[in-house]
Design brief:
Elements: H1 8-22, E1 32-37, H2 39-42, E2 52-55, E3 67-71, H3 84-87, E4 88-93, E5 99-105, H4 116-129, E6 135-139, H5 142-150, H6 155-165, H7 169-172, E7 177-180, H8 188-197, E8 203-206, E9 210-215, H9 218-238, H10 249-259
Parallel strand pairs: 7-8
Antiparallel strand pairs: 1-3, 1-6, 2-5, 3-4, 4-5, 6-9, 8-9
């Protein structure tokens, strides 16, 4: 077997998680990431025999046999680059979808993030929309979090505000941003609510908590959150000031045409 730490997807996972921490999105053990992999990507680096089985406390039959590289529960993102084998785990969803087979990682006896059921629910829904979806990412970007205290949580209004903050926003996330009110984290209830929101958008804000993003790869998903967070930062800097200029709906329509994207139905006049 080849050294799994040399796998391109492992390198990119570690780099992305380190970037998330350096951006201030993942204090302490806040946040989690799951990357879905193909068997062909994993075969050279991990044997088929499981090290141990870990209950999912959720039935993910739709993902049976799928492989995921997942951050561990209680693990600090700042430590992933130094001790990946303790802080990450490669799992395969077992037959029936009620448990995960650990193939590598969690070397200190740990397990996957407590938010894994929410991740798997979101993976299931995003795969129905886009079969190329491979990543679900959760973190706590400060400006998006702050925005949920002072801005309406109406999804259309929230999305339009972000679109108006940066020219690139409607290009990067034309499907908009969905929003959930505060809910208890780590529960099946918030997982199912997030997955439902994932049916119509790749970004789901958890009010007073953080954000979930989904995408085809780590770069796309990181970039989605990064762009929305930049827009929220601008909003938080100007929200208390009189608005003199803005990006109009007409200009947003021009961006649709220029970059061949389609804004979410009904969000522009």
């Amino acid at each position: 077997m080849k050294d799994i730490l040399n796998a391109s997807w492992m390198t990119e996972m570690i780099r992305t998680i380190t970037n998330m921490y350096n951006h201030g999105w993942d204090e302490r053990n806040g946040g989690n990431v799951s990357l879905m992999l193909e068997e062909s990507q994993v075969a050279e680096y991990a044997g088929g025999e499981a090290l141990r089985s870990i209950p999912l406390n959720f039935r993910a039959a739709e993902l049976e046999g799928r492989y995921f590289l997942v951050t561990g529960t209680g693990k600090y993102f700042k430590n992933v680059q130094y001790a990946p084998e303790q802080n990450l785990g490669l799992i395969r969803i077992a037959q029936g979808g009620e448990s995960a087979e650990l193939l590598w990682g969690y070397a200190d006896g740990g397990k996957f993030t407590s938010e894994l059921p929410a991740h798997l629910m979101s993976h299931i829904e995003r795969l129905r929309v886009n079969p190329g979806n491979r990543v679900v990412m959760h973190c706590h970007p400060a400006n998006l979090l702050a925005m949920t205290y002072v801005h309406s949580l109406d999804e259309k209004k929230f999305t339009r505000t972000l679109w108006q903050m940066c020219t690139e926003c409607i290009v990067v996330f034309p499907d908009g941003v969905n929003v959930l009110p505060w809910m208890l984290c780590g529960t099946e209830e918030i997982g199912r609510a997030t997955a439902q929101k994932m049916q119509t958008a790749r970004l789901v804000v958890w009010a007073q908590h953080g954000i979930y993003g989904a995408g085809a790869d780590l770069d796309e998903t990181f970039g989605l959150i990064e762009t929305a967070e930049k827009a929220a930062e601008i909003y938080m800097k100007i929200a208390h000031l009189p608005l003199v200029n803005t990006i109009t709906d007409e200009q947003l329509h021009q961006l649709e045409g220029r970059f061949d994207v389609k804004a979410r139905e009904g969000y522009l006049s």
